[in-house]
């Protein structure tokens, strides 16, 4: 159901609101590696770290709380999201499991990041949640999600540039390098409707 807010903006958390490099130091510590963020050439870090998907899932199960608690904010995301909150409905749609809701909300409070809804779907498939919340724009770092959401919902997606999402993009997916660029692109896309 639409509100009096101008836009409903769907926002991924990890790698979008949090720094995309934040997982690397913790994985290095746990797996005895010395990889750099730039070495993460694909989203599936199990392949990057030469471990199985099951080992990665087990690691995330054990260290997810610490990762979500310690991740820094991505650039000036907090400042821009505080500006957007007054005019737009902010719905965070994340692959995090629901059991990580408390650490997620504590982190949002610590960094004064406002939200209207936080939907932890426990899966990389965010399409049903994005449909449910009727999002007009989505912010994401995972290429597969950006492609799926833009095509299925016919909405623009802002894809934060990372080493693991290099690809030619369709017209509705726009690569951005920073939150300032995201704000500028959102302004261009929705100039007739609103201002960011």
TrEMBL record:
Alphabetical keyword list: Hydrolase
Stretch forming the signal peptide: none
Gene3D superfamilies, per the entry: HAD superfamily/HAD-like (3.40.50.1000)
Top-rank taxon, per record: Bacteria
A GO term for molecular function: hydrolase activity
InterPro entries listed in its UniProt record: 5_3-deoxyribonucleotidase-like, HAD-like_sf, HAD_sf, Nucleotidase_putative
Enzyme Commission numbers on file: 3.1.3.-
PANTHER family reported in the protein's UniProt record: NUCLEOTIDASE YQFW-RELATED
Family from the record: Belongs to the 5'(3')-deoxyribonucleotidase family.
Record protein name field: Nucleotidase
